[in-house]
Amino acid sequence: MTDFKGLGLIEPILRAVEKEGYTTPSPIQAKSIPALLEGRDVLGVAQTGTGKTAAFVLPMIQRMHESNVLPSRKTPRALILAPTRELAIQIGESVRVYARHLNIKCTVVFGGAPIHRQAKALGDGVQVLVATPGRLMDLMNQDKVRLHQVDTFVLDEADRMLDMGFINDVRKIAAELPKKRHVVLFSATMPPAISKLAESLMDNPVRVEVAPQATTAERISQTLLHVAKAKKRSLLAYVLKDEAIKRVLIFTRTKHGADRVTRQLEQDGVRAGAIHGNKSQNIRQRTLQDFKSGKIRALVATDIAARGIDVDGVTHVINYELPNEADNYVHRIGRTARGGDSGKAIAFCDPEERDYLRNIQKTIRQDIEVTSDHPYHAEAVSLPDLPSPKQGGGGGGRGRNGGGGRPQGKKSPGKRFGDKGHGGHGHGGGGNHGAKTQCSKKSGAKKRSAPSKGGPNRAGGHTPMKSSRRGGNAI
Ligand code: AMP
Questions:
Q1: What range does the domain containing 152 cover?
Q2: N or C: which terminus of the chain has fewer CB atoms within 10 Å of its end residue's CB?
């Protein structure tokens, strides 16, 4: 397999990549980087966890460096659009990390934060702009940013943009770009509206596709614990006695539920924090930082707040409440096993959640292995009337691991992108003192979010998803 050097990357970037502990390019990187360095447009079907950020950032900063582009007032040369503030921040942090040996100035803008500070950052000069569409439109309308110099336009998580109602903003933004520009579009799924958008924006793109969800699921050992609703708190406290659970993301369906579980954890002596749509951006960022740094062991989140969260070293994901959208189960468990690590996902299921479970198992096309070896096991709940979709007529409950399953505590085989060492750049975990690259973060957000689409296809492809229901849950 080619290494990063073989992809044509220059030495300062190779050093930055090496510092992150990446040895082998991920498949999406191996396919995209050479094409982007050649100046081709790229249409990528990939989701988070595949290394797609580096796939577009590395060639982008290399081209920028090689053409001696300097920061200029209000006029970014590269524009990256992301659907959520969290993702925008993380991309900004990635730019800073990957460009640590280059002189590249990056600014991140998104809604909810004071616009004047963002306007000032843009006015001070910028090369790379990472933005959510709504705030970018506001800044354009106030003439704080002009897009006529953009030569690289990246649309990340395009299908989520569609879900979240940003597609018209995206079209308007694209209309402001110069005719001659280089476009990269990444999307986890390719619904017709996104294919059409891609067609209108791109010129004979190189198409790259990876099937991450199936492989993510392979690296994650998944277990299911049946429990009465009233016993979930006790079960959580019991499960968390396991010291192997070092950094755990716990999902609830509602904001209220997230707050309640966080309070209970703290009462039970577990350092925890919650992030959801009701928390201010500052608090969300601080809580996320505490989670990354290990100050808190458990982060309790709702689906929307967790969108795009990329924290290295999440050892476990606990579905305290099963998601009512089966696709969200896949997104949730994908928060562990990042960048080639293995991880564990534990789901609590009470009797009222059996329908959700059924849908989830149908979506992932496997039965989740049931663990009954715990004091709160609700035998009556794991009833035979749960018609879970069987694969190949195997014995109940053992799923695709061929009856044996992967023993708890054993690592799954192999790392996806090669050995990453300890945890990649962790998106902002450590300071990059002395780095010339700056990435200002402007925080805050408008509340615009929706469940994403995209589900796993065990055959290796992507299943175009039904349109998402906006459940009544206040998340
Ligand atoms: P992304 O898909 O861009 O969200 O990246 C997912 C995770 O993979 C991030 O934590 C990256 O630091 C990590 N990563 C990206 N490229 C590589 C690589 N070639 N080897 C190991 N880890 C990587």
A1: 5-209
A2: N
Domain termination site, one of 381, 397, 414: 381
Tell me, in angstroms, the distance from the centre of ligand 1 to residue 425's CA.
9
148 and 120 co-located in one domain: yes
Q: Which protein residue has the closest C-alpha to ligand 1 atom 9?
A: 339
> 51 CB less than 6 Å from ligand 1?
yes
Q: Determine phi and psi for 385, rounding to 5 degrees.
A: -75, 5
Q: 446: left (phi > 0), else alpha (psi -120 to 50), else beta?
A: beta
Q: What is the arithmetic mean of pLDDT over 184-207?
A: 91
The CATH number of residue 10's host domain is 3.40.50.300
The structure's pTM equals 0.58
Q: How does 423-445 read in b/e, with b if 16+ C-beta sit within 10 Å?
A: bbbbbbbeebeebebbbbbbbbb
Q: Distance between CA atoms of 166 and 182, rounded to whole angstroms? A: 21
Number of domains in the chain: 2
pLDDT in the model for residue 119:
97
Residue 133 and residue 178: Cα distance in Å, rounded?
A: 18
The CA-CA-CA angle for residues 96, 100, 101, to 5°, reads 150
| Percent of the chain whose pLDDT exceeds 90 | 57
Structure tokens at 335: 């928060």
Q: Which two tokens stand for residue 216?
A: 């993510």
3-state helix, strand, coil in the chain (%, to 5): 35, 15, 45
Tell me whether residue 396 is in a domain.
no
Please state, as a whole number, how many other Cβ atoms lie within 10 Å of the Cβ of residue 151. 19
Integer Cα distance of 264 and 192 in angstroms? 45
Q: Give the sign of the dihedral formed by CA 311, CA 153, CA 41, CA 69.
A: negative
DSSP 352: G
329 lines ligand 1 (CB under 6 A): no
The Å distance, Cα 13 to ligand 1 centre, comes to 15
Residues 6 or more apart in contact with residue 242 via CB below 8 angstroms:
none
* CA-based nearest residue to 296, from 314, 323, 308: 314
Radius of gyration of the chain (CA): 22
Q: Which atom of ligand 1 is nearest to the CA of 26?
A: 19
The pLDDT score that the predictor gives to residue 361 is: 86
d(CA 70, CA 419): 35
Report the candidate in 280, 271, 323, 285 with the shortest Cα–Cα distance to residue 302: 323
